[in-house]
Amino acid sequence: MLKVLAVNAGSSTLKWKLFQMPQAETIARGQIERIGFKDARLEISTKQNNFSEELMIRNHQQAVDKLLKILTEYKVVERLDEIKGVGHRFVNGANHFAKSVIITDSVLKEMENLVEFAPLHNPANILAIKAFRKELPNAMSVAVFDTGFHQTLPEENIIYAIPYEYYEKFHIQKFGAHGISYRYVLQRFLEVSQHEEKSTNVIILHLGSGASVCAIHGGRSLDTSMGFSPVSGIAMQTRSGDVDPSLLIYLEEKLGVASKDVLQMLNNKSGILGLSGVSSDMREVMAVHQDNDRADLALKVFVNRIIKYIGAYATELGRLDAVVFTGGIGENIPYIRQLICDKLGIFGVAISDKLNEEKNKETKISTINSQVEVWTIPTNEELMIAEDVVKLYSESQNKISS
């Protein structure tokens, strides 16, 4: 039995779960938000206790120190050396990493060279990796890549129609995202639906604060909506999704700002927030959309962009067996699922109003007469990360014993 930490670090957040493996038992979970601010907030949940505290946490090193101190103080673990592995979500491994790897000094150096491919995410991932390696030097560190699942995309789906030499020299291509989530949800879908992996075509909608669509053929990613960066694809809570690239230059001139400022606007001030002017939280937008034209427009745009990708991907797949909803919005907001499925009549999609009301459950919500199955399956990226850690840990131990 192994205790494994699964870590998801953001620029100002540190989310984690501690598992007992291989039982996949969650021993504790928590997060630290607003790292770098005076009012950072730490939350931890165990079977016995829920704990929260507001305090000053200057950086990711302090966040890791505080987390590990809490784990021993609250007897989640008696000693830190009980933790045998730490798995880290790494957003963009470019085309350097096709699968999860043990983090050695040389691997970490390679990962540091990939910062430019996800400047909003990769630096925070690296800070957390370094902090945990320092505090838990005897625990195996593993990197699990969101882009790894999309290494199977055919060249025509990763290439941009710009001079080919840029693809060769600078690795300008579609990388995709949410691959850890897609791996988990696909695995669970195949288990609960009893579909055969090799003969199944499924479109998974990962709808959360970041959101994307993935077409999967025979267990492999065929196409996905996020591209070179996580700002592309469908409209999201604060991200624009696809826009005409000429827009960036136009706004630079009109606003008198730098291109990085326009990119920040597309990442942080657009999407549901930018359109509605109400909130980036879908629930708050839904609460007022009947009396607020901009909020209503934001919902329509969100659904419209998703429908366009589903239509394109269904054509690309040639046959559609199932649509699966996951992510915070996909799992927990039946109204959004209803709006999307109402637009899929051309594919013979029909869902049950009663079943669709279920939240955060593995549920088949399509009717018996629906020509395409529709499911909701809560994602569990942390468990997927922990399973990869256990696999690599076991392989390393077998090498030592042999």
UniProtKB/TrEMBL annotation:
What does the record give as the organism's lineage?
Bacteria, Bacillati, Bacillota, Bacilli, Lactobacillales
Q: What does this protein do?
A: Catalyzes the formation of acetyl phosphate from acetate and ATP. Can also catalyze the reverse reaction.
A biological process (GO) of this protein is: acetate metabolic process
Q: Which organism is it from?
A: Liquorilactobacillus capillatus DSM 19910
Instruction: List the active site.
Output: 146
What is the designated name of this protein? Acetate kinase
Cofactor section: Mg(2+); Mn(2+)
Sorted alphabetically, the keyword list is: ATP-binding, Cytoplasm, Kinase, Magnesium, Metal-binding, Nucleotide-binding, Transferase
Which pathway?
Metabolic intermediate biosynthesis; acetyl-CoA biosynthesis; acetyl-CoA from acetate: step 1/2
The EC number of this protein is: 2.7.2.1
Q: Name one GO molecular function term.
A: acetate kinase activity
Cite the NCBIfam families for this sequence. Answer: ackA (TIGR00016)
Co-factor note (free text): Mg(2+). Can also accept Mn(2+).
